[in-house]
């Protein structure tokens, strides 16, 4: 996979590179604070002053490590993508990858951050391009997992392509995840019901009902 930093650097105008060391603890604190603010209050509340305050740093430190807020948001998106890709690798190692993929995809915390990035991208074209590019890669990875599992279990796909199945799977799981922001009790109940259905309907060799 092509790293987001490489893609982002190629589209940046001259003079917008970071000037602080990328491995310092202060920079990590700023990124952590930015993610917390996005999840708790929304991307519009991610300002240099609020970031510095939450991270326990001076306001000028934000633009020392990130010359523009776009740079910060793109790095934050890169971190989220890398976590998601690592999580998909983890899914393939689980006893039941279908259940693991569903539980990963419908995680409310991840969904909340994704929603903020989508809203933010409406105002930042470069981020919009990156989301499209790496969203397509995530879809392809999830499609490959679904395709492998359904083939292994000898489950017919009724003419749907792996990519179409992945899109339907994502839509259902992430829609459920978004609902968790409004009613956590109903979300938990619905998630548990879907997991139970997946386990009872699809066993490791195929459709349980057809055996």
TrEMBL record:
The keyword Acyltransferase does not apply. GO terms for molecular function: DNA-binding transcription factor activity; transcription cis-regulatory region binding. Keywords: DNA-binding, Transcription, Transcription regulation. InterPro entries: Homeodomain-like_sf (IPR009057), HTH-type_TetR-like_transc_reg (IPR050109), HTH_TetR (IPR001647). Residues 47-66 bind DNA. Residues 24-84 form the HTH tetR-type domain. This is TetR/AcrR family transcriptional regulator.
